[in-house]
Structures are given as C-alpha cells and as structure tokens.
Design brief:
With 283 residues, the protein is of the alpha/beta class. The protein is 41% helix and 20% strand. The chain has helices at residues 8-12, 21-32, 45-52, 82-95, 113-127, 133-144, 155-160, 175-186, 210-221, 238-241, 255-260, 272-281; strands at 3-6, 36-40, 59-61, 66-68, 74-77, 98-102, 107-110, 149-152, 167-171, 191-194, 200-205, 228-232, 246-249, 263-264.
C-alpha cells in the first residue's frame, strides 16, 4: 500500500476552482486498489469536503493543523496558541488588511474585509493601468465563496470564546504590506508563514506544516515514508515534498516545487493528478 497526498488549489482543482473529474475518478481507482489517498490542503476541512463530495478519505487541512481519518474523526490538531492568535489578530486589524481566521467550524473574516481589498485594488490599478482589474478581482473572490465562510464584526470576541485557531490567512494587493506582515510573523517564535498563491500569506503554528502532517498520518496508517507520494504546486507544499518518497510537481507548479520533484505531470487544467496517478500506480 502507498499513501498519496494530493493538494487542492492548483493541483486537483482546475483554474475555475473546481475539482478535476478525471482526478477524482483516479483517486477512487487508487482507493479501490487499496492505496490510501489523502487531501493535503491549506483549505479548511469542511471546505475540502464540500469540493470533493462523496470521497471517503483522510484529510490533512489548514496546511497540516487539522488531520482527520476517512470517517471524519479528528486525529490531531496543532492550533496557534490562544494568546499568540489574539496578538496576531490585533496586529492584523491595525494593518488594515483583509484576513481570515480558520476555526474548527467556520472561516471567519472581518465584515469590512471585502471593502479593504477593493480599495487596495483601486490603488493598484490606478498606478498600473495595464493590470486587468476584473482578473484581479476574480482571484480574490475565491476567498468569499469558501464553504463555511462567515463575516464577523468583532474578531477578538471570537477568540475570547476559546476556539482553536488553526490558521490565519492574509490577502492583500499591497506587496510592501505583504512583505512587512511576512517579516513580522517570521520573527515570532511560535508561528511561521507559508503561501499557496499570489497576494497571500498564511500564518500557522511552528508545530504545523504539511510535511509534519504527512509524517504523522503515514505513521498512523503504518505506511513507511518511502511509500508516500505527494502531488502539489506551490510553496506550502514544499515541506511535504521534503519528506515524501515520491514527489510529483504539477506542470503549473512554481520552480521551487519542480526542483524538489521526482517527476513533473501535466498542469491542473490538463488533469495532471489523474495523469500522475495512472502513471505511478498503473491504474
């Protein structure tokens, strides 16, 4: 048996943010041949479930902060420490940026976040008339249609309820502000950052990354790391590429992922997950 970890955005999902039907079918065939397949994503677990429908497989979500078995039972969580999460939210509120708080039951975002993104976009397009405003906004709107997404007026009141915070996501069109926020969090002892796309940074506990989560799930299932396969495209996939036995980069992957890969498959719009699984597993 092998354990195959498949990323979602830019990997199993095509550019319209919907799963490749061919990819889903190849995953079903792999499971039918007694391989273990897990989704390994920066998305929340409930969002991943909503996208993949009737698949009954383990899920590594929030970049590894939450791990579930195929029955939906929580196996492990590594949330941001409550006081650190509260300090981080206070900092982000002062920065006047769009951000999200990933909790077990929902993704929360300040109610004025969309307006902040639109204001940033207006500034960017005004300074760079060649930028396609519609395309920019289309990329941002993916955030608002996540399953379980909720607006909230008082983010700090949410944290006072004691809910685990698996991840904080920041989305900004201001590159200087993005760099400043990244430096701020990377200087902290209990959190670090990663990214799954342009304009985004994700803040997670130092106990969290996809590689640590893959190592845990492999041990839980009794699979040697040499028998693990990972398929991904972006920076938040690097940690799982560093520990897996076989590393498959999507055709649309960033160069850093391609350099770590054992093979490069087709792009997400060309159903690269299905192609890789059929090549590797002889489906």
């Amino acid at each position: 048996m092998k354990l195959i970890a498949v990323d979602l955005d830019g990997t199993l999902l095509t550019s319209d943010s919907l799963p490749s039907p061919e990819g889903l079918e190849a995953i079903r065939e792999a499971v039918a041949k007694h391989h273990a397949v897990t989704l390994c994503t920066g998305r929340a677990s409930f969002d991943a479930n909503s996208l993949t429908g009737d698949l009954s497989i383990p899920i590594i979500a929030s970049n590894g902060a939450e791990i579930y078995d195929r029955h939906g039972r929580l196996l492990r969580e590594t949330p941001i420490a409550p006081d650190v999460a509260a300090d981080a939210v206070r900092y982000l509120m002062k920065q006047q940026v769009y951000f999200e708080i990933f909790c077990p039951e929902a993704i929360y975002s300040p109610s004025d976040g969309e307006q902040k993104l639109q204001a940033e976009m207006d500034v960017l397009v005004s300074a760079n008339p060649e930028v396609d405003r519609d395309q920019l906004w289309k990329s941002a709107q993916i955030q608002f249609i996540q399953f379980g997404f909720r607006g909230i007026d008082q983010p700090l009141q949410l944290l006072e309820r004691g809910l685990p915070v698996y991840k904080l996501l920041v989305y900004t069109f201001d590159d200087d502000k993005l760099d400043e926020i990244t430096r701020h969090f990377n200087a902290q002892a209990q959190v670090h950052t990663t990214s799954s796309s342009n304009h985004i940074i994700e803040v997670i506990s130092t106990e969290t990354d996809k590689g640590k989560a893959l190592r845990f799930l492999a041990g839980h299932l009794g699979v040697d790391l040499s028998d693990t396969v990972v398929i991904g495209d972006s920076f938040n996939d690097i940690s799982m590429f560093e520990v897996a036995g076989t590393k498959v980069a999507m055709g649309n992957a960033v160069d850093e992922i391609k350099r770590l890969s054992s093979m490069v498959t087709k792009s997400n719009n060309e159903h690269g997950v299905a192609y890789a699984l059929r090549q590797l597993l002889k489906l």
